[in-house]
From TrEMBL:
InterPro entries the UniProt entry points to: CheW (IPR039315), CheW-like_dom_sf (IPR036061), CheW-lke_dom (IPR002545)
UniProt GO cellular component terms: cytosol
Any Pfam family matching the protein: CheW
Biological-process GO terms, alphabetical: chemotaxis; signal transduction
Name this protein carries in UniProt: Chemotaxis protein CheW
Highest taxon, organism lineage: Bacteria
CheW-like domain: residues covered: 16-160
Gene3D superfamilies: CheA-289, Domain 4, SH3 Domains
């Protein structure tokens, strides 16, 4: 093996990924596109009694009942604004690797852009926010900071039990 081949083999490959970019208030966030099942217009939802205020409701989609959370309300306590760019994004929610993924709907503001970048561009931000474990690494660019949202960390066990059957419980 030549020295060039040895050095070339030692260089880690950059792992590019596609992200759906959206806003909560004036702050940018991102979801990994492989976790996104479908992007829909905002739809009417049936409310769920005794659910947290950030649980927007439920709707029927392709033969499945899909619970929906308002990520703006979950994160900062203010419901998403009804804009033409506010979307209902279906994500593949799988909190445990041994259970089958289910759809979870997210209401997201300005969910109209994508970004392709290396996953290593998102760096730890140094805070241990136990109240919001879904808030992941951050990426800085010319516009400012963007934070990666961890789909599988969005729901606590009590909310997961409320929104899904016991097959998704820990």
């Amino acid at each position: 093996m030549s020295d060039f081949a040895a050095v070339r083999g030692a260089v880690p490959a950059v792992q590019n990924a596609l992200f759906l970019v959206f806003y909560i208030g004036g702050e940018r966030f991102a979801l990994k596109a492989t976790e996104v099942a479908e992007v829909l217009a905002r739809l009417p939802l049936k409310p769920i009694a005794h659910a947290p205020v950030w649980v927007a409701g439920i709707f029927a989609h392709r033969g499945a009942l899909v619970p929906v959370i308002d990520l703006c309300a979950l994160t900062f306590g203010t419901p998403a604004q009804a804009r033409t760019s506010t979307r209902l994004v279906l994500v593949n929610y799988q909190p445990q690797p041994w259970v089958e993924a289910r759809w979870l709907g997210l209401i997201l503001e300005h969910a109209t852009d994508t970004l392709r970048c290396g996953v290593e561009e998102f760096q730890p931000y140094g805070l241990d926010n136990r109240e919001a474990p879904y808030l992941g690494r951050v990426r800085e660019d010319a516009v400012g900071l963007m934070q990666w949202i961890g789909v599988n960390e969005l729901l606590t066990e009590p909310v997961r039990a409320l929104l899904f059957s016991t097959e998704l419980s820990v």
